[in-house]
Design a protein that fits this description.
five-stranded mixed beta barrel; single chain; transmembrane helix; elongated; membrane; transmembrane; 8 helices; alpha+beta; 2 domains
Length: 419
């Protein structure tokens, strides 16, 4: 009898568990993919939020720029016109900027996501808060709480699963204008938009009638030119803002015969340097002798000056027709011995735009200048004085006696982000 040996066939253990490992691996892979997706979403959201913030900052600064306009120099400024311009300018800025390669897709509307108002101090904290008002607004606020996802597929998927608003970058930005300007301070690569030009403020002797006080402040100047902000052109016509006629030294005159002076900001009156300052403004290097800034407090600042306007300088002023620039006012000028130059006692900053330039028969240069309103970052503000908190609408807030003492400049505003 033959014996048959029974052989045992053994199966590998992993074959029996194949149906368990595959679903487990799929779950682990899904968890890893979700984690990667969340990281990608976080990185995308950070990048998009930064781009949204930059885009909104550009828009709110564009709107704030429109609030500081020549309209403020008129007898009855139309603030509704300024706010309408600000709304258009902000929307135009949004269209010119993109987020994640696309336009931000937000329509700014006054009273909705585009607010006008003022910033007022809070006595308890010392901080300033935004109060919405259409009465002489000085601040603009833009709110974007739920912007579009801008083609973020991760956010689209996760939002459907979690029923949340993931991937919707939003922000709130505020900008203000402030005219408590007492000086200029250029940055390393940012020049002050200023002419090296000083204008006679007043003449107690009565020799000059073409002074800033008489022609501009008392509005005795002619109103023969107007500036169109849409085209940037100067044309003949009345716009409600008077002009002053500036003249340099005539051929056989002296420095006191002029009511305008070219100031020496490191140029030493070399035409090439003066022309560069007329066209490009004043740099930090130009103000090196004043330690990089020029501040007007109680005392006048003495600056070397010349009443002569050379042909190249006259042509440079012609090239700047219609461009609003900061200028200087001086009370008196002292002639330098054996020279046509002198020292001007400058006391204040103003702003204006050149409307016409010509050479007179006596060889003196004549400039027709109209005051204007300008905004700049390269200006110095007076230190704010502590004030009481007013828990009322900004439209009902009246300036106190201390507020009136705070120096303001109706021609120059600093535009900056306040939130």
């Amino acid at each position: 009898m033959k014996r048959f040996q029974r052989t045992h066939i053994t199966r590998p253990q992993h074959v029996g568990r194949r149906g368990v490992i595959t679903p487990l691996a799929a779950m682990v892979l899904l968890a890893v993919m979700v984690g990667i997706a969340l990281i990608v979403n976080r990185l995308w959201l950070d990048a998009a939020t930064l781009e949204v913030t930059t885009c909104i900052e550009t828009a709110v600064l564009a709107a704030g720029h429109e609030l500081a306009s020549d309209e403020l120099l008129k007898e009855n400024p139309d603030y509704n016109k300024l706010m309408t311009r600000a709304e258009k300018s902000a929307n135009r800025a949004l269209k010119l900027n993109t987020v994640a390669g696309q336009r931000i897709g937000i329509q700014l509307t006054k009273g909705d996501n585009l607010l006008f108002g003022k910033t007022v101090p809070v006595a308890e904290t010392g901080e300033r808060q935004f109060l919405q008002t259409d009465h002489e607004p000085l601040s603009v606020q833009i709110k974007t709480d739920h912007a579009s996802r801008l083609n973020n597929p991760v956010a689209e998927l996760l939002s459907e699963v979690t029923r949340t608003n993931l991937g919707t970058p939003g922000t709130q930005i505020e900008a203000s204008i402030d005219n408590h300007v007492i000086g200029i301070r250029p940055f390393e690569n940012v020049a002050v938009p200023a002419f090296p030009l000083a204008i006679l403020k007043d003449d107690p002797t009565g020799k000059h009638t073409e002074t800033w006080e008489l022609q501009i402040i008392q509005k005795k100047g002619s109103d023969e030119y107007q500036f169109d902000p849409k085209t940037g052109k100067v044309t003949r016509g009345s716009d409600g803002i008077p002009e002053i006629k500036l003249t340099g030294k005539p051929r056989r005159g002296d420095i006191a015969d002029a009511n305008m002076q070219i100031l020496d900001f490191g140029s030493k009156f070399h035409s090439e340097a003066v022309v560069r300052q007329i066209l490009a403004g004043l740099t930090k290097q130009n103000l090196k002798q004043f330690h990089g800034e020029l501040v007007f407090n109680a005392q006048p600042v003495e600056i070397k000056c010349s009443p002569n306007i050379e042909n190249d300088e006259q042509n440079a002023f012609k090239d700047m027709l219609g461009q609003c620039r900061i200028c200087f006012l001086y009370n008196k000028v002292n002639a330098t011995p054996r020279s046509y130059n002198g020292i001007a006692d400058c006391t204040k900053l103003v702003a204006g735009r050149i409307m016409a330039v010509k050479r007179l028969e006596n060889q003196a240069c004549e400039i027709i200048l109209q005051p204007g309103v300008i905004t700049s970052r390269a200006v110095v503000l007076a230190k704010p004085k502590p004030t009481e908190n007013v828990n009322a609408s900004a439209s009902n807030t009246k300036p106190t006696a201390d507020d009136k003492k705070q120096s303001t400049n109706k021609y120059i505003y600093k535009l900056y982000l306040t939130q």
